Amino acid sequence: MLLLDRIRNISLICLTAFGCAGNILTFIIVNRCFFRKTSSSAFISGLCIADSMVLCLLSFQVIGKMYSPVTSYDCGVFFFLDVFRLLSVWIICFINLERCSLVFNPCHISRLTSRKKAYIFVIILFIISLIIFSHYAKHMNIEYTYSTNQTMPIRSICVFKPKFHRVAWECIRSALTYWLTVPVCIICNIIIIKCLYHASRFQRTSYNNFNETLNLSSKQRQLTGMLVTSSICFVLTVTPSTIHSIYLAISKNFAGQQYIIHVLTNILLHFHHASNFLAFIFSCSRFRVELIDFFQKFFCAGIFEKWHKRSTATTEQMYVYSTRHQKTPIKLFTSKPNMRKRNNQNGIVVITMNNFNTRQGKKHGPGREAFYK
């Protein structure tokens, strides 16, 4: 059992590191120019924040118990963990409902895809989650496990009070979080995939205004592919844990083998909080393009700029050819900051300005040459 707990703890910490990095990148990409004006960007942003909070709270709980088994914040962590987990699941559920409404009402996309309304809706979901779990402040407390001499606590845990109906609440919490949302996501995914399949067949067989229809719906189709893939990952990772929890509630079988299954399904359950970044990468080409452009712009630009500064000389040389004598080069080299004017034997007046850095960190514009005969 101790080995399984260590495997679970290490897996959760690794999932937190990978999932938080992926959620941060996803949050940045969906708020850039291509996805920014859609309502799905608001839902995905809220999903990234909720998933990151769930992963961070899990790792904080694991690491805190490793270094200090006796803590006073167990109930607070337990409360916010359930709040953000429920928020994450509800956002995924309403994303599927939104995609279904867009599939059935393609002519009302501008009405159904309001970004401001989506942000307000995510905030309302968060407030509802806080209200649902607000009774934890009354029905939960911290219990301490003492040593053999009963003087020093060696471990603390947050549990429900004895008079609280724990079994009934666990069924309600599981139903709100997984038992109701998973069937809704499955039904919505089947409907969306079926409608997209029929739409693609219709576009292949019709030739009137084909390019115009493709251009107008390309963004929504890519968003739909992203969100459907994320929803499928959610269903695949959550379904085993949901089925196993229902089995445990019915059979009351808590043997050692069931504990192993519980640990494995629990790791898989928390994997969906870190899987959205992978789902978006593999399902949407535009997301990959935006991600590569982000890395090139913000990470590679500084390196290339340093290399460019080192490889560029502080002065420049130019050759100007006379109009009187055929192919007679006149080498212009300026080394003073002031503008200079000189004549040569060919009757060309050359006005030059220096083109090198006078101070470190500042650049002058390129030199301008004017030629008058």
UniProtKB/TrEMBL annotation:
Its main location: membrane. Keywords: G-protein coupled receptor, Membrane, Receptor, Transducer, Transmembrane, Transmembrane helix. It is a multi-pass membrane protein. The chain crosses the membrane at residues 6-30, 42-64, 76-97, 118-137, 176-197, 223-247, 259-282. One of its GO terms (molecular function) is G protein-coupled receptor activity. Residues 22-280 form the G-protein coupled receptors family 1 profile domain. One of its GO terms (cellular component) is plasma membrane. SUPFAM superfamilies: Family A G protein-coupled receptor-like (SSF81321). It is found in: Membrane. This is G-protein coupled receptors family 1 profile domain-containing protein.
